[in-house]
Design a protein that fits this description.
CATH architecture of the largest domain: 4-Layer Sandwich
Helix content: 55-70%
Number of domains: 5
Strand content: 5-15%
CATH superfamily of the largest domain: PPM-type phosphatase domain
Structural class: alpha+beta
Shape: elongated
Strand order of the largest sheet: 5-14-13-10-11
CATH topology of the largest domain: Phosphatase 2c, domain 1
Radius of gyration: 45 Å
Number of helices: 27
Distance between the termini: 57 Å
Largest sheet: 5 strands, antiparallel
């Protein structure tokens, strides 16, 4: 027995409340008419309603009023005592602020004593024992019925149309309908019952649109089957529900018409047409009018009602918790991003003016000119200005000699040798100081660039995390589509927009992924692909679908080291940045062998790490150039790099000191050129960057200089590539390398590598 903690509250008088109490009164009258001797089943309803929080005064009054159907003063007296006892218990509990718990079972049993001793009952011939013992058995039945009706009312008042009902709640509602239907048949006959059953059955078909309507129809038939076994078999209700479902794909009118015609034909065998014309007409109208009324209801109302009754319903609390966490993470990331902005500002200080010349002149004047007897004559001859010119020349050249002396200074100064010696000594100290300051500035600039890049990454993540997951009607639509295909999902979660659109579902492990993806893609109107399948239990898993990119890519690589070398100085990389982008790169270390290969590997490794972290491109190239320049002596690297977007086909090309690349598009050959020096050769790299729009079946070709040199000239290489008709990127790379080696008589004069990429339309 399910015990509930009940709190009492004073209802406010509204139209909804008035309708609720009116329906309760009608229900009490009907259940009191359900059994042949009109036993007071309404007390079970009054007890259940009061325990569920309805006004106990109204519940007690309604029970007393319903006893009038017995047409007996003794029955009314019994109901009055029961009502008074119920009211006393409820008022006392409300007065002392207590809650009804398991003890209400005792109160329900005590409340049956007036029925046992006061209610007029002649007994049933079906039971072969005395009337008193039959009434004792009925008391036990009515006590149990109090809790069953309480469960049914609790489901109707608090859970129906808000969440999925449990099996016990559905059974309790079915029992309540059984007694209500029996009472309706006893008081008004079969015709009103047919009207209610037709309305409820058709409504179930239109709302559920599934086999759930069939057992619902069986439940509807129970009161008629119990009241009059020969009237209509239960199987007929189930058959009519199946008939309505069969025609439902053609519209509500077709489904309702099929149900009505089916009922029309079934009544021929039941015997309706043997009755009077009035009875036949009223019965048919009782079925036809509710069906016609349902056909006139707007589809929008059916969709809203159906949404509340679906098998699938996303819980609100988990989504709220996720959104709260996402907001908190987003806010924290914004704060950390701002912190790195401050770090960037702290390191990116303005350059101070270089006043080293003035300091050197003051030092020279203090050491050489203070004790010189001709210092006044030198000042009049504008020697200080001449000394500034000499110092400027020294800063530019690194040191000075006699030929650098200005005429004013050589004619006026008597100690030119000492001046040159002291100046060269100061310039040496200045060079050391300037080198240290430059290194410090470069280090601060590098740290500022890194802080800027990290700030940008954190800001982008914060913006992404700040977006909230909201409820979507498409989740319910997808649930219905899967259910109609025999795939039941207890959870569906849609989130993200555009390229980030993601569908997560909890399904059985054995679900066919290809079929699942097809159904989801058609239902949502988005091309999807299975991204991940995460096991949850031995028989269930989480299927994650993501938006499919418009293009797929295939790659080819062919390489040959320089003759006499064991390793090639060329390295290549193919990297998946995320679900929508990939990166390909070819790096050619200056020279051949292990040393050149180490430089290429280092360059590509750095680039991959930065791009994978989604660092801004301008920060990536400048940082990698500084790190390569700082890390080794006279080691440089040429680079071809392409970051390709699989949604648009756009390729961002970066070329640093590398030979020409190519895009082979049908009959057209596009040349990709750059003029920058290799990475590491200068303190600041200025790469050649361009964006190329690629289409399906286009080929991107990168080659190291060992390959391009073999063809002699760019014109010869372009002529060769233009006549190619490649089918796949690997054969294209091998053909180009084979042709280049043939021009060297099979012996590579330099490291040779060909990297190719082909875009294809996604299946």
């Amino acid at each position: 027995m399910n015990f509930r903690y009940i709190s009492f509250r004073k209802p406010s008088l509204t139209l909804k409340t008035a309708a609720k109490y009116l329906l309760l009164l009608i229900a009490m009258f009907l259940v009191d008419l359900a059994l042949p001797q009109r036993e007071p089943l309404s007390f079970a309803l009054a007890f259940g309603a009061a325990v569920c929080g309805l006004d106990p005064f109204v519940c007690a009054a309604w029970h007393l009023a319903a006893s009038a159907v017995s047409l007996s003063a003794a029955a009314s007296l019994s109901a009055g005592v029961q009502s008074a006892f119920l009211l006393l218990v409820m008022v006392l509990y409300r007065r002392f602020g207590r809650q009804l718990r398991f003890e209400r079972a005792i109160y329900a049993l005590i409340a049956q004593l007036p029925f046992l001793f006061l209610f007029p009952h002649s007994g049933y011939s079906l039971f072969p024992f005395a009337v008193f013992w039959q009434k004792m058995l009925l008391c036990a039945f009515l006590t149990v019925l109090c809790f069953l009706f309480e469960g049914a009312l609790h489901a109707l008042l608090f859970r129906a149309f808000k969440c999925r009902l449990g099996g016990s709640e559905i059974a309790e509602l079915a029992l309540l309908w059984l007694f209500l239907g029996m009472g309706l048949i006893r008081v008004a006959g079969n015709i009103p019952f047919f009207a209610v059953a037709a309305l409820a059955g058709a409504l179930a078909v239109f709302l559920f649109k599934s086999a759930v309507a069939v057992p619902f129809a069986l439940v509807l038939s129970l009161p008629l089957c119990v009241s009059d076994v020969s009237a209509v078999p239960a199987a007929l209700f189930a058959a009519l529900a199946c008939l309505a479902l069969l025609f439902l794909p053609y519209g509500r009118i077709a489904s309702a018409l099929a149900l009505f015609l089916g009922f029309l034909g079934a009544e021929y065998f039941v015997g309706l047409y043997e009755g009077s014309a009035a009875q036949i007409s009223l019965t048919l109208l009782a079925v036809f009018l509710p069906l016609a009324a349902l056909c006139c209801v707007p589809e929008k109302l059916f969709r809203r009602a159906s949404h509340t009754l679906l098998f699938y319903r996303e819980s609100a609390l988990p989504r709220i918790a996720i959104n709260r966490n996402r907001r908190a993470v987003g806010e924290q990331l914004f704060e950390v991003s701002a912190l790195f902005r401050e770090i960037e500002s702290a390191f990116r200080t303005e350059e101070r003016p270089d006043n080293a010349g003035a300091r050197i002149r003051e030092k020279l004047t203090a050491s050489l000119c203070t004790s010189c007897p001709n210092r006044r004559k030198c000042r009049e001859a504008r020697v200080p200005e001449a000394m500034d010119k000499l110092i400027a020349v020294g800063k530019a050249k690194g040191r000075v000699n006699l030929i650098d002396l200005p005429a004013e200074l050589s004619s006026a100064c008597n100690n030119t040798a000492g001046l040159l010696f002291a100046l060269n000594k100061s310039l040496a100290e200045y060079r050391r100081y300037a080198y240290e300051m430059q290194a410090a500035r470069e280090g601060k600039r590098l740290l500022a660039d890194q802080a800027h890049g990290i700030s940008e990454i954190l800001r982008d993540i914060a913006l992404e995390q700040s977006g909230e997951y909201v409820f979507s009607d498409e989740e319910s639509r997808l649930s219905r589509a899967l259910a109609s295909a025999g795939i039941l999902s207890s959870e569906i979660f849609l989130y993200g927009e555009g390229a980030r659109f993601t569908v997560s579902m909890t399904l059985e492990n054995r679900v066919n992924a290809v079929r699942l993806v097809k159904i989801a893609s058609v239902t949502l109107g988005v091309p999807l692909a299975l991204a991940e399948k995460i096991p949850l239990t031995p028989d269930r898993a989480c299927f994650i679908l993501k938006r499919k990119a418009n293009f797929d890519a295939a790659f080819g690589i062919a390489s040959c080291p320089k003759k006499g070398e064991q390793a090639s100085g060329d390295t290549h990389s193919i990297l998946k940045i995320d679900e929508r982008r990939f990166l390909v790169a070819l790096s050619d270390g200056m020279g051949s062998g292990e040393g050149a290969r180490d430089v290429s590997d280092q360059t590509l490794s750095l680039l991959e790490s930065f791009y994978k972290a989604k660092m801004p491109s301008e920060t990536v190239l400048g940082t990698v150039n500084k790190l390569i320049a700082f890390s080794a002596e006279e080691t440089f690297s040429c680079l071809d790099l392409a970051a390709v977007n699989l949604d648009t086909g756009d390729a961002d090309i970066v070329k640093i000191g590398s030979p020409a690349g190519f895009v082979l598009s049908g009959e057209e050959l596009r040349v990709l050129e750059g003029e920058s020096l290799p990475i590491g050769m200068l303190e600041a790299v200025h790469p050649a960057t361009l964006r190329v729009e690629m289409k399906a079946d286009d080929f991107l070709i990168f080659m190291s200089d060992g390959v391009t040199t073999a063809f002699g000239s760019s014109a010869e290489l372009c002529a060769y590539l233009s006549q190619l008709k490649p089918l796949n990127p690997q054969s294209l790379a091998e053909d180009i390398l084979h042709t280049a080696l043939g021009r060297y008589d099979g012996k590579a004069e330099d490291d040779m590598t060909v990297l190719t990429v082909k875009l294809t339309k996604a299946a």
